[in-house]
Amino acid sequence: xxxxxxxxxxxxxxxxxxxxxxxxxxxxxxxxxxxxxxxxxxxxxxxxxxxxxxxxxxxxxxxxxxxxxxxxxxxxxxxxxxxxxxxxxxxxxxxxxxxxxxxxxxxxxxxxxxxxxxxxxxxxxxxxxxxxxxxxxxxxxxxxxxxxxxxxxxxxxxxxxxxxxxxxxxxxxxxxxxxxxxxxxxxxxxxxxxxxxxxxxxxxxxxxxxxxxxxxxxxxxxxxxxxxxxxxxxxxxxxxxxxxxxxxxxxxxxxxxxxxxxxxxxxxxxxxxxxxxxxxxxxxxxxxxxxxxxxxxxxxxxxxxxxxxxxxxxxxxxxxxxxxxxxxxxxxxxxxxxxxxxxxxxxxxxxxxxxxxxxxxxxxxxxxxxxxxxxxxxxxxxxxxxxxxxxxxxxxxxxxxxxxxxxxxxxxxxxxxxxxxxxxxxxxxxxxxxxxxxxxxx
Length: 442
Known about the structure:
about 450 residues; mainly beta; elongated
């Protein structure tokens, strides 16, 4: 029995001696870590049978710790629960390989690789985030992004984020027009933290552009006249009004106002000397523009109100309205049959009709109806009207087409309109019609 006890004791002693002779070994393993800037990182290093050997933490040639001694002066580093290395407030500079090393002749190492994820940042150019260029020129906006992983940069125009203008650090805009003015945004994103959005204001400089809603304003003595011009310009333009080349200034009867881009000239209690040509003139540092408006007491052009389809085979009731503040003195109507098929090759002759002015006009609108008789069934006609008051004759009306019942043309009634606006026919015929009418009126 004593032999077995002695043998067992010898075996335990031998195993213990063998363990001491095994030397130190790592219980932890090297690993790759991804961490975000500002976080706290723990790098494990667990060793068995270290004995009297010293364990070091190194980063490149620099020694961070030796045993429990902190060699680095960076207070963000410290040992936790033995030899685990903790780094607080991780920064981009902390990326790299960290080596936990046993200082014996074998120099056994355990390596941890640290990747630091950095949220995106952006450097804008121009720094003011405001760019200006002339119309027809070019402009370049820049968003220089940094971060880890490398961020993507996407460009949009404000209020149109569905349309991607470009990808990359630069947005290049060429052949600039005024509609290119506005806010542009670059969105920088790398999946770490929220995306960054930078806004730029692009200003396209151009000389004034003027439009008028009416180039001819009808009025009468004792009434009012309102002239309006819309001005677009950058830099903003100075706008002046002229009458017959003489500058206008505000008075008891004349007021000038601005609302948005609209400049309005209001003339109250119109007098004979107020009739004439007016000019809206806009100036800025890049140029000048002008538009003309005539203020007249002559009647407005006739507006046809009757249906293009007659209710009879041989007659048609023509209806139209003429705006005139003074009473109408005279109305002239010209109409003729058109050539529309093989059996009728040429237009008919013009019929000249003098119409009596309406007996009960409103303050402005004069409504006139006149029945045309002796027409051909199933035929297409065209008509023009001109009116006169004490200030003179108005412009010739637009060409108006109508047709009588009967024949195959009745099924095409929807192809005609009260205000016939065929550009080709209008260009070819208006001058001839006007000449014929003025000849007849003469």
